[in-house]
């Protein structure tokens, strides 16, 4: 025989509703606990996997010794000093200094250029 809603009193209906809510919340709490535990298991497994990968990568061969660069060839004594450029591009000034050194037959580091100015 089916029970109709009219057969329950207000107190019985409230108790039945509370029991229903209790069962639902208990199920949700159990599901939340299962999800938290599974998350911790996966995080621990990932840590173990990354630790194993780091342990495998650890033993690396020692780097080969670095060879020293060859010593630069000795240059003629003398310094160029400071050079002032007036409305002249550095590329043009370098070309002019190389031409002057070539025409004089002397190395560039034995000549001293103080300033280069374009004559208009």
Which descriptors apply to this entry?
2 strands; mainly alpha; 5% strand
Question: Could you walk me through the main structural features you see in this protein, from its secondary elements to its overall organization?
Answer:
This protein has 120 residues and is mainly alpha-helical. The protein has 2 helices and 2 strands. The protein has helices spanning 10-57, 90-104, and strands at 84-86, 115-117. The chain has a two-stranded parallel sheet with strand order 1-2. Strand 1 (84-86), helix 2 (90-104) and strand 2 (115-117) form a beta-alpha-beta unit. The mean pLDDT is 83.
List the topology elements.
Layout: H1 10-57, E1 84-86, H2 90-104, E2 115-117
Parallel strand pairs: 1-2
Summarize the structure.
By secondary structure, the chain is mainly alpha-helical. The chain has helices at 10-57, 90-104; strands at 84-86, 115-117.
Side by side, the strands of the main sheet go 1-2
Distance between the amino and carboxyl termini: 120 Å
Order of helices and strands: HEHE
Q: Based on helices, strands and strand pairing, what is the structural class?
A: mainly alpha
Q: Give the overall form.
A: elongated
Helix content: 40-55%
The average pLDDT score comes to 83
Radius of gyration: 45 Å
Strand content: 5-15%
């Amino acid at each position: 025989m089916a029970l109709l809603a009219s057969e329950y009193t207000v107190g019985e209906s409230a108790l039945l509703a509370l029991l229903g809510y209790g069962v639902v919340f208990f199920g949700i709490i159990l599901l939340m606990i299962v999800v938290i535990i599974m998350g911790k298991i996966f995080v621990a497994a990932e840590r173990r996997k990354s630790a194993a990968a780091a342990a495998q990568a650890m033993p690396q061969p020692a780097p080969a010794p670095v060879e020293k660069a060859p010593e630069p060839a000795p240059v003629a004594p003398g310094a160029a000093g400071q050079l002032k450029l007036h409305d002249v591009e550095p590329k043009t000034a370098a070309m002019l200094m190389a031409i002057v050194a070539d025409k004089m037959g002397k190395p560039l580091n034995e000549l001293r250029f103080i300033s280069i100015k374009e004559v208009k």
